[in-house]
Amino acid sequence: MSQHHLLVAGASGVIGRAATLAFEEAGWRVTTLSRSSEGPGSGHHVSADLLNIVSLRDASDVLSSVTHVFYAALKPDPDPATEAQQNGDMMRHLFQVLEESQASIEHQVFVQGGKVYGAHLGVYKTPAREEDSRHFPPNLYFEHEDLARELEGKGIRWTALRPDIVIGHSLGSAMNLGNLIGLYGTLCRELGVAMQFPGTARAYDILLNICDADLVGKAALWAIAENQQGPYNVTNGDQIRWRHVWPEIANWFGLETGEPQPISLETRLAAVSGTWKTLAERQGLAETDIDKIAQGGFGDFIFHVEEDAVFDLTKARQAGFAEMCRHSPQSLIQHLEAMKERRLIP
Predict the structure, then answer these.
(1) pLDDT digits (tens, 9 = 90+) for 22-42
(2) Most buried by CB count within 10 Å: which residue of 52, 61, 137, 188?
(3) Which of 102, 120, 20, 115 is nearest to 69 (CA)?
(4) What is the largest CA-CA distance in the chain?
């Protein structure tokens, strides 16, 4: 694999970090790219803004030898049209500079997720299949897939991975549900309250699926090794209801579960940021800034979805990806254990 050179765009996020580690473990040369000053892996890191093509051109020397791309960069925006345009521009800039650098790209893998089906709209056809119709535009993932189809004409194979509710490790990520649950449970214990589900009673009872971040990295390795083309749903392989899982999580914290009680975590966490800072300093935790651990806004969406949100995994399984056989409640507990080991929670 030494001749293969992977560029991970968006390497500081949950999925980018996991992909970096997966490919490095498999013996690949990996270069990471993000706006951060440091990357998650042991290889070369490019600090650049994908919206600023000049900053990318400054790294053309290292980009010239790239053979594969894993694209997980994301710039959220409340306006769907702005979000689609900016994220589309980001990917276009990257491949423009790769072409200018005379890089010979064989295959790109990019991340889509539930938003491609309309998950952000609160309801979509379930179980979602890869051939389902697009929702009414705009959508940033439509931009990415359309560009990938254009690049296919230049001989670049593409795979779109569609995980749902990714659980993994990162700091400062806007979408990190595992860290958010760890943060919320720790604060419930500190404040002496039950760990009530912070969403609606209906959301407490829906079917949903989650995906461990490292599984996305494994899927990317499989997609490249097997020359897989097109979109593939990827999750842990099971389905859960918060009603069944939440008591297990509360028990891990030594807390009572209580009843579902819809609140805005974004608002409430901001109000107790001082409590977190005091707790973190007293316990010698790794991060005293509550916003670096997790963002409440992501939970405000996930914990208020009131319709089943599950993917059909038949296509990837029939194509030979056999890793989707995990027990998600166990994955969530393992994530909390890892947060404890990393001194993110006491």
Answers:
(1) 999 999 999 999 999 999 999
(2) 188
(3) 20
(4) 60
The pTM assigned to this predicted structure is 0.95
CB-side neighbour CA atoms (13 Å) of 314? 6
Q: What is the pLDDT of residues 266-318, one digit of tens each?
A: 999 999 999 999 999 999 999 999 999 999 999 999 999 999 999 999 999 99
Cα-flanking dihedrals φ and ψ of residue 297, to 5°?
A: -60, -35
In the chain, CATH 3.40.50.720 sits at 5-166+210-234
For residue 178, is it left (φ>0), alpha (ψ between -120 and 50) or beta? Answer: alpha
Task: Determine how β-strand 29-34 pairs with β-strand 230-234.
Answer: unpaired
Which run of H or of E encompasses 113?
A: none
Owner of token pair 């935790």: 285
Two tokens, residue 212: 């461990």
Beta bridge partners of 213: none
Nearest-Å Rg of the Cα atoms of the chain is: 20
Question: Any bridge partners for residue 234, and if so which?
Answer: 163
Asked if residues 234 and 162 have their Cβ atoms less than 8 Å apart, the reply is yes
